[in-house]
Every structure is written in C-alpha cells, then in structure tokens.
Sequence to fold (114 residues):
Amino acid sequence: MIEVFDSLDIFDLLYESAEKNNCSYVYFTNKALDNCQDQEVIDAVYAYYEEFLPEDMLLIIKTNRDNIIRFISDDAAMLNAISWFPKKENLGDLSDEYYFKCYAVDHQGIIYQN
Fold:
C-alpha cells in the first residue's frame, strides 16, 4: 500500500514546534557565503560580523549550515534577529555573501524577516 504524506517545509516544522514547545525561533541561512570559494571574502564576512555578533553566534555561522536558534519569547527572537542580521539594503555595496536571510518564527507564522 502506498502512503500519502503531507509535504512540510522548514517553516511548517518551526510553526508546529513553536506551538508545541511554547517558544519562538530565529532561522537564518546564507547560501552565497556557504557556496563561496574565496577565502578572503569569507574572512571579510566573519570580520564584519565579529563587530556585533556574540562569539557563539559567529561560531554557529562558521558551520556553513542553515541554523535555528530557540527563544522563550517572540520579543527575544525578534530583538536578536534584528540586531544580528541587517536588512539587505542596510549592507550598502557589500556582496551577497554578507547577507543572511533571517526569520523570526512563532506558532502563528513569520513574525519578522529582514
């Protein structure tokens, strides 16, 4: 017998988990940096974010994976997302490697994106 499954994306999983665990998440990804082969560009991006990211966040970024951080409230998720990941237009002439797509998510959906 063939079973039919509902297709879920990362946001569906985050919504469900946020509801079940009464929390919020910050999800961020940077495919341009993940795919970058130029070590000078990579080092420059890390140096840029060293100026304002907590050290543990910088270590997470260096893993080159999509990442999810759990928070106990919507406010904490939004405030950290805003302070950690600038909007693309705020990066000026910096290359795409500097831009992390970032979303704060609760059980109802996306509550912030940069």
